[in-house]
Write a structure and sequence with these properties.
Number of strands: 8
Distance between the termini: 41 Å
Largest sheet: 4 strands, antiparallel
Shape: globular
Helix content: 40-55%
Strand order of the largest sheet: 1-8-3-6
Radius of gyration: 18 Å
Mean pLDDT: 94
Low-confidence stretches: none
Strand content: 15-25%
Number of helices: 9
Order of helices and strands: HHEEEEEEHEEHHHHHH
């Protein structure tokens, strides 16, 4: 339950609000390789990650899978466009490791959203942060070297480097497996 307390931090929440929110979440154990969402499905849930690593990926024009995001402890696993606009997802979301997550369904979230005004403020703050994060990532893909992006990943999400396959990390960084191996060797030589 600590992970939910970490996620739903906002000064406008009362203890009663938080209890209502927490009670709508269901704890689930997932196995490595389990899908949270597949391409062309409409997302009906989002998840709070208590333990493990999850990735989202798409297929490029050559049908290669390209990692677009990693989720680690205390992240919300979501494909917001599909969940909130009720449209088919273009992403796949899959467990990289065994995971423990807290699931909340779309209908329960909507009910809470309509009955707890503070959830609106929390949601606005969370979405603003996500927009800022994605904007930064887009800019960094253009303005930072692959080595700098790798070092940022080490700092921001160290669990990814422990548990995700190198090919998935390389695609997330926008480089080849060979380039990632070279960067890792240079850092070790340091």
């Amino acid at each position: 339950m600590d992970v939910l307390k970490n996620i739903y931090q906002h000064p406008a929440f009362s203890e009663e609000d938080l209890n209502l929110i927490f009670n709508k979440h269901q704890k689930i154990n997932c196995k490595k390789g389990d899908f949270f969402l597949k391409e062309n499905e409409i997302s009906d849930d989002y998840f709070v990650l208590e333990s493990g690593v999850v990735r989202s990926f798409v297929y490029d024009i050559n049908n290669d899978d390209i990692t677009i995001n990693f989720f680690t402890i205390n992240d919300i696993i979501i494909e917001a466009s599909s969940l909130f606009q009720r449209i088919p997802s273009i992403e796949n979301i899959q467990a990289e490791t065994d995971c423990v997550v807290w699931r909340i369904g779309y209908d329960d979230f909507q009910e809470l959203f309509l009955t707890i005004p503070a959830l609106t403020e929390w949601g606005r703050a969370w979405m603003s942060y996500q927009l800022f994060y994605l904007k930064n990532r887009s800019v960094e893909m253009i303005t930072k070297s692959a080595t700098e992006r790798y070092l940022n990943l080490i700092q921001e999400k160290p669990d990814v480097l422990k548990f995700a396959p190198l090919k998935n990390i390389a695609s997330y960084l926008g480089i080849t497996d060979t380039s990632l191996s070279r960067i890792r060797k240079e850092i070790v030589k340091g």
